[in-house]
Design a protein that fits this description.
This protein is an alpha+beta fold. The protein folds into 7 domains: 4-160, Galactose-binding domain-like (Jelly Rolls); 163-222, Sandwich (Immunoglobulin-like), CATH 2.60.40; 293-379, Immunoglobulin-like (Sandwich); 397-494, Sandwich (Immunoglobulin-like); 518-619, Phosphorylase Kinase, domain 1, CATH 3.30.200; 626-807, Transferase(Phosphotransferase) domain 1 (Transferase(Phosphotransferase), domain 1, Orthogonal Bundle), CATH 1.10.510.10; 818-901, Transcription Factor, Ets-1 (DNA polymerase, domain 1). The structure holds adenosine monophosphate (AMP).
Length: 903
């Protein structure tokens, strides 16, 4: 809205001596403005009201940008005593234009508008100020500018609201959405998958009051035949294909396929090429083996019986499964299959997919006395074998069946079976009898011991004992070697590796100073020099890696500075190959930490910056991160001890807030615990805003926010203040009282934000003193100005600790809600199948043996247990006792809903 001439029709009150339209020539063009300058004319109350401004139905918050000039009161000499240099902005809502009727009482004040720069005689400083008018609900509104005795000219007023622009994120399209206001800081918006994309759940996202999209939820994926490209799903190009719904790229058509057209779901096989029914569409097509032709060769028998009239007969059997029959006339032999003098034959007209067995008999003039046989099992199904007709399971073992065929009249009678189970693919079989025909079959076993089918039988004859007698003094044991199929081991996935405070509180030092953002130093190295002392690297020795930070490993070590006692320290290192920016970001943590001196803030010992291996050295905290410490000591600490820890953290945070430092990532994982169980706030960094926190979730503008620890206004419009740190402190209180339980359990970030927006809050942890839970709820007030300050928190916690009886009243605890952790059923919602599965789900596996020793082996028995019984089987810690008892309670009451949160 720009004032241009008198046609704006704004109303002035009182009419005569108040605001008026003025003209001013500037650079050749005329500028109009609303002007007033009743300086030195006594009390002033002059109003300028806009025309009725229609409100967009969903815009509850509008911005008013004013460009104006204010004259310096000093320039009015004697009149300057009553002269003002500000004016007021007011608003009044209405459902319809009320025309020229004007009543001051209908307006509410939005803000006092003061100029950044005042103008003297002859110079003109135009100021631009923007104010928010929030919580609008009626059809429209008026704005009014109240002069109380200043010399002001208003050049323009721009009224606007913010929107999140129509966008496509993760293949979901979201419409332009008007940003919410204080009452609805995050607007949930449903989207739709782009053309040719689908998703199981409707995609959603939040629009913040700043008109920024955050936390997209849901995954749209391109249909078969389409791949993601530039926020859309595009057809696979010719020669490419995609078989399934996914965001993978289209693949090249496999071998032996026809080039596909665009948008192909698969590529058809070239003529003469096929896929077996179980072949994936991504597999190459394969040809059937040409109708078979093969050359069969063999060695003459070692012992020809001293004769030369050896001839051979080739016998062919055709087998399907275990059924074999003679091959018949179809198969051709060149030159013949009988009376062969050569030791080879060409066999043709073999059919694909079939197993053939050829037996070669050697004969001589006295062959009725001895027949030496060699069997050759041939498979004509090579291609199919390649295409996985072999058993799909992994083969780890083989069985070898050995049957003994005695060379007597009852030739085919099998008399003995020996079964060997092997882990290798060869075996040596000893102690065979001479002059005996042995048949061997091999069968593969899967790791579970499931048998595959048998191979063809292989036949071996052992020579006569006499032969050995002649050759050697004593017959050696007869040996035979069998070579089994060797399969490469497939499917052998490697398993993926799997994630009091007795605040001996001396009067805390009051910070004398305000925290200085190292960014304000032009050269960040100056900041490090100013706030951290340089340590010579020979004075620090690393002992053991204790953690990994964003920039490199964290070590435990020793600091031995000249003239000082040896001290255990933590040494943060910067991994080699760092850039100057990384070095500066890394050291910014030291520049910040070095400014603090408090018992509950991790203490900086110094830095190594003048050598290649840059380090930050801090005091060593023996018990590591608080969240893990609590999980490892679940149920082992009293409320008094836990509240003591919280008091320490609150004291550290009070110190930080007194120094005007906003932490932004306060969470139990960023609190360190020493051997005296003192808790200290850690994790200060600059670039960090959470870059190094695995809990950080990217917002669409690229910032990262740990949603479940962060106050709604900080998520919505990055309003990070000590009050948002207080919200996070409330979450830390909950984490501590719940022994390191994950806030909001397995709810997604999206569900958490929705629940918080709808005024739900975390329920009281088990056994949590009522006063402590009340304090948490205070920390989670939507209106940040109503939250307690850290100094209030410290004094309240102090009070509780001074009269421990105040911790006796326990907050209502609803196992059906809170025992989502000790869950009421298995992860899939089905009842627990075993006592140990249930114990594992409530993280009480350490008692498995107690249960089984007491004969409690079924969930039916568990459900009958009373507190007494649980104690009697050896669960003594009160926390554990309760956890188990409550879980049983929850199991009995599975019908109750889990959606009740304390508000
Ligand atoms: P940070 O980079 O600060 O998040 O550190 C990574 C991990 O190193 C932490 O989670 C701790 O387990 C460990 N750590 C860091 N500083 C210390 C310290 N002063 N004393 C003991 N452990 C530490």
């Amino acid at each position: 809205m720009v004032a241009s001439g008198g046609e704006l029709g704004w109303l002035t009150w009182p009419d005569e001596q108040g605001w008026e339209i003025a003209q001013q020539a500037l650079n050749g063009s005329l500028l109009y403005n609303y002007f007033i300058c009743n300086v030195g004319a006594g009390e002033q109350d002059n109003w300028l009201r806009t025309t009725f401004i229609q409100r967009h139905p969903t815009a509850t918050r509008v911005f008013v940008e004013m460009r104006f000039v204010v004259r310096d009161c000093n320039s009015f000499g004697a009149d300057s005593l009553t002269c003002k240099e500000t004016f007021n902005l007011h608003t009044s809502e209405a459902d319809a234009d009320i025309g020229t009727s004007f009543r001051k009482g209908q307006f509410r004040k939005v803000a006092t508008i003061a100029p950044d720069e005042i103008s003297g005689v002859g110079d003109m400083q135009i100021n631009t100020e923007t104010r928010v008018v929030d919580n609008l609900s009626r059809k429209g509104f008026y704005l009014a500018f109240q002069d109380i005795g200043a010399c002001v000219a208003i050049y323009s007023v721009r009224v606007y609201y913010k929107t999140c622009p129509a966008t496509v994120k993760s293949l979901a399209a979201f419409p332009e959405t008007v940003a919410g206001g204080e009452n609805q800081a995050l607007r949930e918006v449903a989207g739709a998958c782009v053309e040719n994309a689908v998703s199981e759940d409707q995609p959603r996202i939040y629009c913040t009051v700043d008109g920024e999209w955050v936390v997209p939820v849901g995954q749209c994926q391109c249909r078969p035949g389409y791949e993601p490209k530039n926020d859309s799903c595009q057809e696979c190009k010719p020669g490419f294909f995609k078989t399934s719904v996914s965001n993978e790229a289209c693949e090249h058509c496999p071998k032996n396929t026809e080039p596909s057209s665009s948008g192909a779901l698969s590529c058809p096989c070239l003529q003469g090429f096929y896929r077996a029914p179980n072949d994936p569409l991504t597999a190459a097509c394969s040809a059937q083996m040409a109708v078979g032709k093969l050359q069969l060769s063999w060695s003459p028998p070692a012992d020809t019986g001293g004769r030369t009239d050896i001839t051979y007969n080739v016998v062919c059997d055709r087998c399907e499964g275990s059924v074999c029959q003679p091959c018949g006339e179809k198969v051709r032999y060149d030159p013949s299959n009988t009376d062969l003098k050569e030791i080879s034959v060409i066999i043709s007209e073999l059919e694909p997919h079939l197993n053939y067995t050829f037996t070669v008999e050697a004969r001589n003039g006295v062959s009725h006395l001895c027949i030496a046989k060699r069997s050759v099992a041939l498979s004509n199904t090579k291609n199919l074998v390649n295409n996985k007709l072999v058993p799909e399971y992994r083969i780890t073992d083989f069985t070898v069946k050995c049957s003994l065929q005695e060379k007597d009249e009852e030739k085919n009678k099998v008399t003995t079976y020996t079964v060997l189970v092997l882990e290798k693919n060869s075996v040596q079989i000893i102690d065979l009898s001479p002059s005996t025909v042995y048949l061997f079959k091999v069968q593969a076993l899967s790791p579970e011991g499931n048998p595959g089918s048998y191979s063809m039988e292989q036949e071996f004859s052992t020579p006569a004992e006499e032969m050995f007698r002649f050759a050697q003094k004593s017959p050696p044991p007869i040996k035979s070697f069998i070579f089994l199929f060797s399969y490469s081991r497939k499917n052998s996935h490697t398993r993926q590796g799997p994630e009091d405070a007795y605040f001996s509180s001396p009067e805390q030092l009051k910070p004398l100073k305000t925290y200085v953002d190292p960014h304000t130093y032009e050269d960040p190295n100056t900041a490090v020099l100013k706030f951290a002392s340089e340590i010579h690297p020979t004075h620090v020795s690393k002992q053991k890696v204790i953690g990994v930070g964003e920039f490199g490993e964290v070590y435990r070590g020793i600091l031995k500075a000249p003239g000082r006692k040896e001290a255990a320290v933590a040494i943060k290192t910067l991994k080699p190959g760092y850039t100057e920016k990384q070095r500066q970001d890394f050291l910014s943590e030291a520049s910040i930490m070095g400014q603090f001196c408090h018992q509950n803030i991790i203490r900086l010992e110094g830095v190594v910056t003048k050598f290649k291996h840059v380090m930050i050295v801090t005091e060593y905290m023996e018990n590591g991160a608080l969240d893990k410490y609590l999980r490892d000591h679940d149920g082992e600490m009293s409320s008094f001890q836990l509240v003591g820890m919280l008091r320490g953290i609150a004291a550290g945070m009070k110190y930080l807030s007194d120094m005007s430092y906003v932490h932004r990532d306060l969470a139990a994982r960023n609190i360190l615990v020493n051997s005296k169980l003192e808790c200290k706030v850690s994790d200060f960094g600059l670039s960090r805003v959470l870059e190094d926190d695995p809990e950080g979730t990217y917002t669409t503008s690229g910032g990262k926010i740990p949603i479940r620890w962060t106050a709604p206004e900080a998520i919505a419009y990055r309003k990070f203040t000590s009050a948002s740190d207080v919200w996070s402190f409330g979450i830390v209180m909950w984490e501590v009282m719940a022994f390191g339980e994950r806030p909001y359990w397995d709810m997604s970030n999206h569900e958490v934000m929705k629940a918080i927006n709808e005024a739900f809050r975390l329920p009281a942890p088990m056994d949590c003193p009522s006063a402590v839970y009340q304090l948490m709820l205070q920390c989670w007030l939507q209106d940040r100005s109503k939250r307690p300050r850290f100094q209030d928190i410290v004094s309240l916690l102090d009070k509780l600790l001074k009269s421990p009886d105040s911790l006796k009243a326990i907050a209502d605890f609803d196992p059906r809600v809170s025992i989502r952790l000790p869950s009421t059923s298995g992860s899939d919602g089905s009842p627990f199948r075993s006592v140990s599965e249930w114990l594992e789900s409530i993280k009480m596996s350490q008692y498995s043996e107690n249960f089984s020793m007491a004969g409690i082996v079924s969930m039916e028995q568990v459900l009958q247990m009373k507190s007494e019984d649980i104690r009697n089987i050896g669960v003594r810690l009160p926390g554990h006792l309760k956890r188990i008892a409550y879980s049983i309670l929850g199991l009995k009451d599975q019908t109750s809903t889990l959606s009740v949160f304390a508000v």
